[in-house]
Every structure is written in C-alpha cells, then in structure tokens.
Amino acid sequence: MPYLRDVRPTKSELLVLKTRLKIAIKSHKTLQMKLDGLIMEVTRLTPKVKAEYELLIARHRRVRHLLAPAYMIEGMLNLTIAAYSVESKTEIELSEKNLFGVRVPVITGDNVRTDLTLRGYGLLGTSMVIDDLADAYEGLVEAIIAYAGNAAALSHLLSEIERINRRVKALEHVVIPSLKQSIKTISAAREELEREEQTRLFHVKKRRR
Amino acid sequence: MTFNHFFNPYLVTPSSYRYLCTRIVLRKKSLITSDQYNRLLNMELSEFIRFIGESGYHEEVHTLLHSYPEIELIEQALTKNLAKTYRNILSIAPGGLHDLAERYFTRYDIENVMLILRGCQFQIPADKIRAVLIPAGILDPIKLDQLLALRSVTEIISHLSSWTGHDILSSRISGEYKRGTFASLENDLYIAYYSNLLTDAKSGYQGGDVIIPHLRFEIDIQNIRNIFRLRAGSNVRDITPYMIPGGYRTPNDFQRLYGVTDREEFVNELSNAGILALLTKALGTLRCDKSVCDTDAAEFIWSRWAAHKTPLNTIVIAVNTMLLHHLDGLARRHQFSVLPIISYLERKKYEVMNLRAIARGKQFGVSPDFIRQHLVI
C-alpha cells in the first residue's frame, strides 16, 4: 500500500515525507478532537431536538383538535374575518453561529406570541374559540421555529461529522500508514545505498593500499 | 309595497303586533326540530345537502350549486339564507319594530363595516372581502359594493354618514393609522350596539320591560366570557374598556372580579350574579346528569379560572342553549310583544350555526356525539 510510488530515495524526499507524516498525525489528532467535540455537541443537542419535535407534534395535534370545533362554531367566514383582522406579524430572523468550525443556522422568531388585546381583532365581536385557535397556532409557530433552528443545526453537525469521520479514517488507515511505509522504504533504500557506498569506499581504500 | 307602508312609521298598533307575531310564530314552527337534527347527525354530507336543498334553503342551494364545492356551498347557502330572512323581517316589521329589528341587525353591519375598513387599510383585494361579507344588516349588498369600491378609509367613513355608528367611526379614526385602532373601534361599536339595544328596549315596546332583564343578564354573561378570555390570553390590568356596560354588574365589578384569586370570593361573585345557577344547569345538561350541583359547577369553573384557561366551548354552548330556552319561555308568556320576534331571530341564527356545525363536523369526520355537544337545540 505505497502512498507515493515514484519517490526517489533521497534525503530531501525523506524529509518531505517526514514533515508530511508529522502534519498528518497532527491533523489526525486535531480532527479526532473536533470529531469528539462534534459528537458531544450532537449528543447534547439530540435530546433537545427530540423534545422539541415531540412538542411540535403535540402542538400540531392541539391545533388539529381545535380546528374542527373552531370551524363548527365560527364557520369559515368568521374565521377568515378574524384572520383578516390580525395586525401582528411574526418576524423570523436567520443568522449563523460557529460550532467547532461548523457554521450552523440559528432561527429566531419575533412577535410570535401576541397579547390577546394586540392581535388586531375586537374582543367583543369574536368568540373564545378564535382565541384558543390563535393561541394554538402561535404555540405551533413557536415550536416550529425552535425545532427548525436546532434540527437544521443537528443536520449540519451530522453531515460535518460524517465528512470529518471520513477524513479521520482516511488519515488513520490510508495516509499515515502509507507515509510511514514510504518513509520506511526510503529509509531502507537509503541505508542500502549507504551500505553500498561504505562497501565501495572500503574496496577503493583497499585497492589504494 | 311593503307591509310597513300601511302604518304610521312610529306607531305600532296592537293589531300590527298580533299580525307580525303570528307570522313570526308560524315561521318559527318551520325551523328545524330536534328530531330532524338527530337525523341530520347520521347523514352523509351529500344527503345533508339534499336535505337542506329540500327545506327552507332550497333557493340558495340551487343558486350556488355550481359555484362552490360541497362544504363551502353549505356555508354560503346558510349565510345567504340568514341574510335573506333578516332582510325579509325588516321589510315586514312595522314602525318602531322595524327600528328595533334594524338595531338588532346592526351587529352584522359592524362586522361588514369593520371588514371593509380593514380590507382598505391592509390592502386586501376587494373580491376576497366580498366573499366573506354577510349582508344581513341594514347596509344592503349594493351599499356594501359601493363601500368596497372606495379607495381610502376616510372616504368609506364619509359614505357611512347615515349609518348609526358613523359618529364613533369619525371620532376614532383620524390621521395616520395606529396599530390596534380597529380592534378598539370594533369594541366601541359593539358597546354602542348593546347600549342602543337597551335604550330601544326601554322606549315603550310591548315586552320591552321583559326583555331588559334578559338583555342585562346576557351582557353579564358576555362580560364573564370576556374576562375569562382576557385572563387566559392577555396581560392588561385595566379591563374596563373591554366590558360592556348595561348589565347587572358594572365594569368596575368585573374589574374587581378580574383580580380575584380566592376561590370562595370568586364563587360568591358568580353566585351573586346568578351565573353559577345557570352554569350548574348547563353542566347538568352537558353531562346528562341531573345530580350536578352548584359545588360541581363551582369546582369546574374555578379550575379553569385558576389555570388561566377559557371555559370549554361545549359549556359556552350549553349556556347559550339555556339563554335561548329562557328567551323562548319569555316569548311564550308575552305572545304579542317584541319577544317572539327576538326569539325567532335568535332561533334562526342558531339554526344556521347548528347546520354549519353539523356540516363542518362531518367534514372533519368527528363523531355525532361530539357534534351534538356543539348544537344549540
């Protein structure tokens, strides 16, 4: 499994290979540390994302549960009228943060939960089923935003782990062993050359005598 | 020529009461009965459409048959029929009763006007607004179309100069729009609506003195619902702008109740307002259990209050049923007064709501028992 096939067994090549090996070992160590860090981060994030997913499902179920009575009590017309009255607008901000060199998205929402009196519809012309439904939808949007940010971060981290793991494995099982093998081969060839040179010098010296 | 042309516009004679009340009582008999509701609960959606297409809603169903899919057809037909019925009542009500009916229908005008104002302010396309207007009020479809064609809120308000809520509109909307203006304007219009209704009831109609206690109690219930809503979904401290004056309890009483955290005090307040007794009956009806007592009702309502939650929808519907039964009882006792008219208008409104609830319940595939809990029968 030679890493470099056409390497001349010179001292300079040996030095280059030794430097490369040193860098490869250092990279392996660093990547391994990064991998461990990422795995720790994923281990920390996974239960959180799972809990957020379960919350999202629960809130979605609540919305589905309230939708039927809302349509039954208020009808499509009144719900549409209430929807047209809404003045508060949810703003979603997208930013990024750095986790072990991986840029992960951060999603935050503003104005998600609104006070009943600030939603935009009049209190006296509407019924409580509209409040309940609006509240349930706000909760769902809040859960979606929280889940989306962390799920996207988790997905980025997992793909990064896969990429780094491939590199670590390549360094561990291909690059470092082949560099070591090449260094060993060159060293052996150089030792052989040295021995030949010594023998040649020995014979030259002997002839002069 | 309409019926009220035969009458002095401000005089309602005993014979005109008898004539109108008899017509109304006959119409009331043609409303859907509880047996028919039970049959409807077990029908498929297509059978349901056929049923209403063969009953009092045939004209609307046949007109809209090709314009809307199943469920929307039902809802549009029901709404249009309600609007038609109300407009018809308006055309046959003589003199002062006509005014009272107008006052009663103002609720739909408030809804329509607010919708048009919001559509104009938030630039919602006129077609979308037109699709959800319910022309059951004084402002007829032609007037509503004219309002929809206007470009600015100020123009709309100036075109509504003859409308009852014009003064409130013009005083509240001036200059640049501020967030929340429409919501508070809508609340003010509804407060004025109840105030006008009470004033009209006091102005000498037969049965007016009987309807006042009912209206005041209804206002109290509406206020109780609203304090529950505010407690569940808001952080406001001063709730008096959201309370309707005119009930047995003043807005200040409700302000005090809003801050109550002691169970005994809360239950006593509800008991003194007569709401606990009504709630006990409603809970008993809902659970089909005659042994439900005041303590059960107090425990139920306190648990929702303490948890900052709104009461269950089914309880609110059961309370509405109780109120409707009370109104029907009054209408039976005072046969030739405004009560049969108001009772019919309420019955018709709830019939439309019941049919809509059944249709939507079928659409969502919920059980007939669940739908039944949402019916005001």
Task: Explain what this protein looks like in three dimensions.
The complex is a heterodimer of chains A (209) and B (377). With 209 residues, chain A is mainly alpha-helical. Chain A is 75% helix and 9% strand. Chain A has helices at residues 11-85, 128-208; strands at residues 91-99, 102-110. Chain A has a two-stranded antiparallel ribbon. In chain A, helix 1 packs antiparallel against helix 2 (128-208). The relative contact order of chain A is 0.17. Chain B is mainly alpha-helical and 377 residues long. Among the domains of chain B are: 95-205; 208-333. Chain B contains 19 helices and no strands. Classes of the chains: A mainly alpha (209), B mainly alpha (377). Chain A binds chain B through residues 67-69, 71-73, 75-77, 80-81, 84-85, 87, 115-125, 127-129, 131-132, 135, and chain B through 72, 75, 79, 110-111, 114-115, 118-119, 122, 124, 128-129, 132, 134, 179-180, 182-187, 189-191, 222, 225-226, 228-230, 232-236, 242, 244, 310-311, 313, 316-317, 353, 356-357, 360-361, 363-364, 366, 370-371, 374.
Q: Main beta sheet of chain A, described?
A: 2 strands, antiparallel
Which overall shape of chain A is indicated by the principal axes computed on the Cα atoms? rod-shaped
Strand percentage of chain A, roughly?
5-15%
Secondary-structure element string of chain A: HEEH
Structural class given helices, strands, pairing of chain B? mainly alpha
In what order do the strands lie side by side in the largest sheet of chain A?
A: 1-2
Relative strand content of chain B: under 5%
> Approximately how much helix is present in the residues of chain B?
over 70%
Radius of gyration of chain A: 33 Å
Measured distance between first and last alpha carbons of chain A: 47 Å
Secondary structure tally, helices of chain A: 2
How do the helices and strands line up, and which of them pair or pack?
The complex is a heterodimer of chains A (209) and B (377).
Chain A: H1 11-85, E1 91-99, E2 102-110, H2 128-208
Antiparallel strand pairs in A: 1-2
Chain B: H1 14-29, H2 34-41, H3 45-54, H4 58-64, H5 70-92, H6 95-121, H7 126-132, H8 141-149, H9 153-159, H10 166-172, H11 181-201, H12 208-233, H13 251-258, H14 263-272, H15 275-287, H16 294-306, H17 313-333, H18 338-364, H19 368-373
Helix pairs in contact in B: 1-18, 3-4, 4-5, 5-6, 5-18, 6-11, 11-12, 12-17, 15-16, 15-17, 17-18
